[in-house]
Design the sequence.
């Protein structure tokens, strides 16, 4: 048997992100008909955005820039015209005081946070933990620690039941504490999986607490401002040298180019660039080259406002309508208030079986969903008896009408069976 290092053993452990990606691939490429992919984080192929990227590709081919992008290594910081345009765009669009020295590109946003987590904290340093102030959070972080399960510490949220079938999570500051071993605060905003937007007041309090402790606040903004702007409640997106902002080209329709962006103080960017160089020489140039000109002339902002945001609002309305139509009325289900992102977060209060079992039952019928407990990965062991994580499911609405309807009907039928047998 092959003998593995500690890192090898950690990476070899199967986690929720492995199940998600395997299911995602099977749903797309297996050839099985009528599979319902309600689990994935892949964006929809919005026709207007597809046309925009085709225009970009034609420009690269016609100008000869395609050869530069694909046949030479780029800057370890990222494709130079893109970095320059993005710095100017963030100054103008967001009012952030940044230069090119505050930016770098990475092989996807997930790789950016993998590097950040492990560069800032490990089990042998004084700084040994990354604090998630509100769980649940992104499933892709679950397996990113090179220091085992102790790297992440999460805080159980406040749950506010709203009128109708809505609810909302909030940061529970009575439970939240920054310890001497805390290296940074991390969160996604809008949150993956819930779409929750930590309020401006909550963000302000987190930033004040972090500043007092002398640590960074890291925000994964893959669904938010300035792009793709898949948000529906008013909020601001601040940045200064005590914050790290993660951006991505995936949710504007370029997930295959694996292009993430980090906005941070210069010394942290320099560290990320050196780490990225050691791991992979330089980031992918193609996505950055496709996007660079549209930062300058306002095209990307208009695309987000006119095409991306309305598309996902419509998808969310449709999926919610399907839940209202097919879920039995006597089942106590709620949905997290829609504030952003491309998911509905379903809470089946009092679900008699674990969400993992409901996932297995739905999967056997060709409906892929995400069981909620994986997204609570950062909660301490003392919270393992809390039922709520095992009553939740993440549902993607980035699919067509027929697929969403089939999936919700299967989910509703299996949920009704679970409650009926209890």
Sequence:
């Amino acid at each position: 048997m092959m003998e593995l290092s500690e890192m090898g053993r950690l990476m070899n452990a199967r986690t929720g992100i492995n199940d998600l990606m395997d299911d995602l691939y099977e749903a797309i490429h297996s050839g099985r008909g009528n599979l319902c992919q309600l689990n994935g984080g892949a964006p929809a192929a919005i026709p207007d955005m597809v046309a925009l990227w085709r225009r970009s590709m034609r420009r690269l081919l016609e100008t000869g820039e395609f050869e530069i992008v694909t046949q030479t290594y780029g800057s370890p910081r990222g494709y130079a015209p893109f970095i320059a345009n993005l710095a100017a765009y963030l100054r103008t669009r967001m009012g952030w005081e940044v230069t090119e020295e505050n930016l770098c590109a990475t092989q996807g946003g997930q790789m950016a946070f993998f590097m950040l987590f492990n560069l800032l904290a490990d089990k042998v340093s004084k700084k040994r933990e990354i604090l998630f102030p509100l769980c649940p959070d992104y499933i892709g972080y679950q397996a990113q620690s090179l220091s085992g399960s102790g790297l992440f510490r999460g805080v159980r949220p406040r749950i506010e039941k709203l009128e109708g079938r809505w609810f909302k999570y909030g940061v529970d500051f009575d439970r939240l504490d920054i310890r001497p071993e805390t290296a940074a605060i991390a969160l996604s905003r809008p949150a993956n999986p819930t779409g929750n937007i930590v309020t401006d007041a909550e963000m302000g309090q987190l930033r004040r607490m972090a500043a007092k402790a002398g640590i960074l606040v890291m925000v994964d903004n893959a669904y938010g401002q300035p792009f793709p702007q898949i948000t529906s409640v008013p909020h601001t997106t601040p940045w200064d040298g005590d914050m790290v902002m993660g951006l991505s080209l995936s949710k504007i329709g370029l997930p295959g180019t694996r292009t993430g962006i980090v906005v941070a103080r210069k010394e942290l960017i320099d560290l990320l660039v050196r780490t990225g160089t050691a791991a992979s020489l330089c980031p992918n140039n193609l996505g950055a080259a496709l996007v660079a000109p549209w930062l300058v002339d306002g095209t990307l902002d208009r695309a987000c406002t006119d095409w991306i945001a309305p598309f996902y609002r419509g998808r969310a309305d449709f999926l919610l309508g399907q839940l209202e139509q097919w879920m039995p009325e006597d089942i106590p289900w709620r949905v997290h208030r829609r504030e952003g992102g491309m998911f509905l977060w379903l809470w089946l209060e009092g679900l008699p079986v674990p969400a993992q079992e409901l996932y297995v039952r739905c999967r056997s019928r060709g409906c892929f969903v995400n069981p909620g407990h994986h997204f609570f990965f950062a909660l301490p062991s003392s919270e393992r008896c809390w039922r709520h994580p095992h009553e939740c499911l993440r549902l993607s609405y980035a699919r067509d009408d027929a697929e969403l309807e089939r999936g919700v009907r299967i989910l509703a039928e299996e949920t009704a069976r679970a409650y009926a047998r209890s």
